[in-house]
User: Which sequence fits this backbone?
């Protein structure tokens, strides 16, 4: 029975990630299709619409926005719109948090201020992996951090969450690892680590 249970567990651990990935992809496809498909049906002649066109249009729009954002005038217009959004109470909180979170791993920010590091816990040989998110605090109120300190985000394994700690730069060790590799390593508690990943 123990042997059969082990075989069943192996099957579950093999099938569940595949099913979860397929489910997520189907959910993304149907969401994009329902969100963009209906407006598209109003714009094109009846009978021309095919399943999947909403998703294709969505990808094309995202790509077009990426191209437009390379133009100075469009960037300035976006910054002006973003400034207005950041003045609305509820929208400001949600939008700013999501923008900063995705920006953390987009590779568009200061590489020095977002380096992967390990943090040694005081009085022990244990270390935690994290990301330096800020190395200056001049724009924040006094008392947030001391001179020579950095802010380090310590994500938790197998969940969305973590802690931001302030510590002397001397207590962190830079790691030659990309942000994506480090986040995957931390979120999976090191289970998905391979020599090629690091």
Assistant:
């Amino acid at each position: 029975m123990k042997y059969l249970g082990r075989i069943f567990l192996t099957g579950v651990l093999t099938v569940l990630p595949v099913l979860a990935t397929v489910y997520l992809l189907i959910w993304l496809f149907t969401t994009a299709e329902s969100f963009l498909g209906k407006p598209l049906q109003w714009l094109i002649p009846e009978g021309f619409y095919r399943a999947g066109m909403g998703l294709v249009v969505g990808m094309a729009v995202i790509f077009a926005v990426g191209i437009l954002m390379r133009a100075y005038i469009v960037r300035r217009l976006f910054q002006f719109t973003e400034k207005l959004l950041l003045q609305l109470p509820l929208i400001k909180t949600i939008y700013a948090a999501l923008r900063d979170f995705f920006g953390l791993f987009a590779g568009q920010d200061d590489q020095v201020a977002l380096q992967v590091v390990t943090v040694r816990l005081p009085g022990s040989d244990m270390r935690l992996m994290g990301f330096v998110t800020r190395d200056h605090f001049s724009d924040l109120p006094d008392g947030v951090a001391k001179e020579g300190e950095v802010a380090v985000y310590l994500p938790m394994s197998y969940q969305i969450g973590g802690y931001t700690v302030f510590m002397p730069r001397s207590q962190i060790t830079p790691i030659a690892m990309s942000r994506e590799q480090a986040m995957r390593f931390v979120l999976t508690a090191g289970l998905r680590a391979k020599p090629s990943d690091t």
About this structure: The mean pLDDT is 77. The helical segments are 2-43, 53-68, 72-85, 89-105, 179-187. Strands lie at 116-120, 127-134, 149-155, 162-168, 172-174. The chain has two domains: 2-105, 112-187.
